[in-house]
Amino acid sequence: MIQRIQSVFLLLLALAMVSVVFVPIWSKLDPASGQELVLTATKLTYAHADAGMSVPTNTYAIAALALTSAAIAVFEIFQYRNRFTQLKLGALNFLLIVATLGACFYYSGIGERMLNIKMPGSYEAGFYLPTLALLLNLLANRFIRSDERLVRSADRLR
């Protein structure tokens, strides 16, 4: 089960998606006012809020999508006896990771409008982790498919 390379890829995928919850995804600094806006998986907030600043925006959708994707990847590891189910879970995981990236884009767009429209924000490590997870999911599905082809060719020889 863990000896197969796709299980290692799926475990790394789960670790990448869990770490999205704990690292910043996007930030924007306004040099004129000294305000910094930070997007994490749970909130979009000012780093040093003054009186009159807007309240933090909850972004729990990012955290929910990332944690669901991690849970599916871990569950997919233990479905090693049924490769077709693993492939279906991999397709579902692909959709969840893309939805996570979409939610990150959406909330960073909201942040762009909240603070000095002329200055662009910068994407942090939390944004690139789902991209890494997409690559790991693609590799895992590729090796699952090759295992399935190997088993089918061995069945043909019997």
UniProtKB/TrEMBL annotation:
The keyword Transmembrane applies. Keywords: Membrane, Transmembrane, Transmembrane helix. The chain crosses the membrane at residues 7-27, 60-78, 90-110, 125-144. The keyword Transmembrane applies. It holds the Pfam family DUF4293. InterPro entries: DUF4293. This is Uncharacterized protein DUF4293. It comes from Hymenobacter chitinivorans DSM 11115.
